[in-house]
Every structure is written in C-alpha cells, then in structure tokens.
Amino acid sequence: MEINNNYSTISSINQQIAVKKAELSSIDKKEDEKSLFENNDSVNIVGKNYDEEDYKRVLQKYKDLDSEVRTHEQTHSAGASTTAPINYSYQVGPDGKVYASGGSVRFDTSIPDNEVNAEVKLDKLASAASGPAQLSFSDSQISRAANLNKLLLQGIEQGVDYGNN
C-alpha cells in the first residue's frame, strides 16, 4: 500500500509542478509581450530637449515641400503623354510620416511619323516640361529639346536640307 501511496504522491507532485510551469510560462509570455510593446510602440522622451515651435516649423517645411513636389510633378504629367507613373522620392518627417521630397515624370518623347501630329506632340511636350513655376534643369532641357525638334520639323517642311548631302 505504501508504494501506491508514493506513486499517487509523486503523480500529484508532478501534476502540481506542471500546473506551476504553465502558470510561469503564461506570466513570462505576458512579460515578453509587454516589453515588446514598450520597446516598439511607445516613445520615451527623457526630458523635453526640443522646442515645440521649432518642431512645428520643421514639420511645416516637410508638408510644404511634399505639396510643392506633388503639384510640380502632377503639372508635368497632366500636360503630355508619359511612359510611366510619377516617381516620388520620400523622406520621413519628424512626426514619423512619409513626405515626398522629389519626383520625376517620364515623358513619351517618341516622335510620330505624321508631321502635324509630331508638331502637336512636341508643343505639348515643351509646354508640359515648362509648365510648373519653378523649373528644374531637366525640365528646361526637355522643353529646349522639344522646341528644337519642332524647329527642325518646320525646317524640313519648308525644304531645308540639314546636311543630307
């Protein structure tokens, strides 16, 4: 009888140990989740080491630049045929949000065989490239090239020989 009693006591002890291990495991899991949350999802600022007005001013600069860049590139895109969607480059602002800091548009610069269509397309291309108020170097280069190609087409229409001797 004593042996059976020992087995039941050992079994009971093992069962209690298993219950305690499960409880500890649950507590450990909760502690891990809590520490992950604290490390990843909260901002711990020790002391206020920035000026609130400076923060607002810098944040406004990010917002203004984002608006300027998007308007600039959309003005280009709306004026002529493009070969790809607008491509933006981004920066993360002090508030953790993403703001456009630059961009580009890939114009369709192919010239149609029909001279009238080619002239219309080159006019649109020159207009779209020089459409925004502040032109970049690339903008002015595209506009200049479109205008030059238009002049070359007009010269060909008028019978000018550009060196085809």
TrEMBL record:
A UniProt-annotated Pfam family: SprA-related
InterPro entries hit by this protein: SprA-related
The protein, known as: SprA-related family protein
Organism, scientific name: Poseidonibacter parvus
Organism lineage string: Bacteria, Pseudomonadati, Campylobacterota, Epsilonproteobacteria, Campylobacterales
